[in-house]
User: Fold YiaA/YiaB family inner membrane protein from Craurococcus roseus.
Amino acid sequence: MNNQPHQTDSGAWVAFTYVSFAASVAMVALGVLFLPVDLATRGYMAIGMMMLVQSSFTIAKTARDRHEGTRLHKRIEEARVEELLAKAERGA
Assistant:
């Protein structure tokens, strides 16, 4: 039914993504910490940064879930077509 091999990411790629995420959050956090503004403005910037990170995770998960749902739907449709073709061949 599904002849496509399951693709997995290499360990190096996964490590790179985690390290780059941590580095980018650390750099923005340091930038916010050393801004020449009052504490309330720094807090506002920090909260904005945390919400941006959270919403990035949420939108990425939603996009992946929608894509996975589409793939499952296509596999179900392919199975139905294969079943109908098999029935038609048996009947002919």
About this structure: The first helix runs from residue 11 to 33. The chain has two helices and no strands.
